[in-house]
Specification:
Number of helices: 11
Distance between the termini: 54 Å
Structural class: mainly alpha
Oligomer: single chain
Order of helices and strands: HHHHHHHHHHH
Strand content: under 5%
Helix content: 55-70%
Length: 199
């Protein structure tokens, strides 16, 4: 039975969750699908093409029906909501941030940028400022999620001497303590940073 493209993408996403982006190879994927690797080349000429399709599938989980701003909704709230959905989509998969950020010419990301810029322009923000806000917020979201998904290894933790680190970086340590001691979460950190761009 011939392999279907969506079947390959579904299996690739399962492999992504199990092994991370480095673990997704056409050879491993072919083995899981019980086919020879050349069978995959009918659909994807290389891993990069596969990753682009995986990115589209991840994004579609949150953006299959992106709605434009309601009249009573501020463009800032609409944009904040959109980027929270982008973060949610990426966090749903191991290395999802790297997959989305590394996908080039993503039609879904282009659609998101187009819709977001149109929302801002229609709200009275000039075209240049609209593009810069959307671009900066997009890159902030990519970076934030990639950092969230980059785990510190046990070896790295053992090599980090917290007392020395805190002593040598007192302002940084105080800032972190002050923020999270007030009951803030990593979600708050994302949204507070995003608001600085949007506002």
């Amino acid at each position: 039975m011939a392999l279907k493209k969506q079947q390959i993408i579904k299996e690739a996403l399962e492999l992504l969750n199990e092994s991370g982006l480095e673990g997704v190879t056409l050879r491993k994927l072919a083995s899981r699908l019980d086919v020879q690797a050349p069978a995959l080349y009918w659909h994807f000429k290389n891993k990069h093409a596969l990753v682009n399709e995986m990115a589209e599938a991840i994004l579609q989980t949150e953006f299959h029906d992106l709605k434009e701003r309601e009249k009573e909704e501020s463009w800032q709230d609409w944009l904040l909501n959109m980027f929270n959905h982008l973060r949610k989509a990426m966090l749903a998969y191991t290395d999802g941030g790297r997959v989305i950020a590394g996908a080039h010419l993503s039609l879904t990301m282009a659609d998101l940028s187009e819709t977001a810029m149109k929302v801002l322009v229609n709200a009275g923000v000039d075209l240049r400022q609209s593009r810069l806000i959307v671009l900066t917020a997009t890159r902030f979201t990519f970076g934030h999620v990639i950092e969230e998904q980059t785990r510190i290894t046990e070896k790295e933790m053992q090599e980090l001497h917290m007392e020395s680190f805190n002593r040598e970086h007192p302002t940084l340590t105080a800032g972190i303590d002050e923020y999270f001691s007030a009951g803030k979460t990593i979600d708050d950190l994302f949204n507070d940073g995003l608001r600085m761009i949007i506002d």
